[in-house]
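During the reporting period the student researcher (J.K.) took over the structure-prediction task from the postdoctoral fellow and processed the backlog of single-chain submissions. One of the processed entries is reproduced below for the supervisory committee.
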Amino acid sequence: MDQSRRQARLERNRAQQRRGQLRWLVYISIAAVAVVGLLILSNMVRSASIREYASAQTGALLGDPDAPVTLIEYADFQCSFCRQSWATTEEAIVKQYVDTGQINYQFVILAILGPESVQAAEAAYCAAEQNKFWEFHDAVFGSFSSQNSGGYSDSNLADFAQAAGLDMNAYNECVASDVKLQAVEQAALDARAIGVDSTPTFQINDQIVAGAQPLSMLQSMIEDALAAVGAD
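J.K. obtained the following structure tokens:
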């Protein structure tokens, strides 16, 4: 009888162990599916953030360099209001005015919010060297993170460059050389010389307005600039 009870206990213990192993297998499977899902979602979000551009790029300038009106945006990649402008107004301006040849749109990347702003600005100017600035800035703004928290590390910036379709050998060589650090410093000097000390700031021909602007305001300024040069 004792032996029968021992055998029954042994069978129960084995059954419990099997159930425990099955539970762990289920948990591991669920975790694996979740990780794969998050990776797929992350790739989809990053891919979706990169826009297609009909107009040609010349460095950080989009559109016809000889267009009668130039819109310059001074921005820092760690600036939340710059990211807001990218998300809410930029694409409409490009389609309405740049793609129709009325204006060109130029970015000047400033680095005023800390060391990761400097790293991101250098990387952006390396992207501009390949005429891939606009795809790169989409990738960066599309993966916006809090200031100087690791979101704009060298490895993340390299991921953004790859997502933007850059030649990675040329990009890595450019970043490693620090050759664009001078461009970052010169951009800050040139901006201060005309009174730009915050981001975003917009310059439309000779008009300058600071702060994130609604689409209607930028459209009004562009229309005024076009009228002033007789291109309305």
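The committee noted the following: Residues 2-49 form the longest helix (48 residues).
J.K. will present the remaining backlog at the next meeting.
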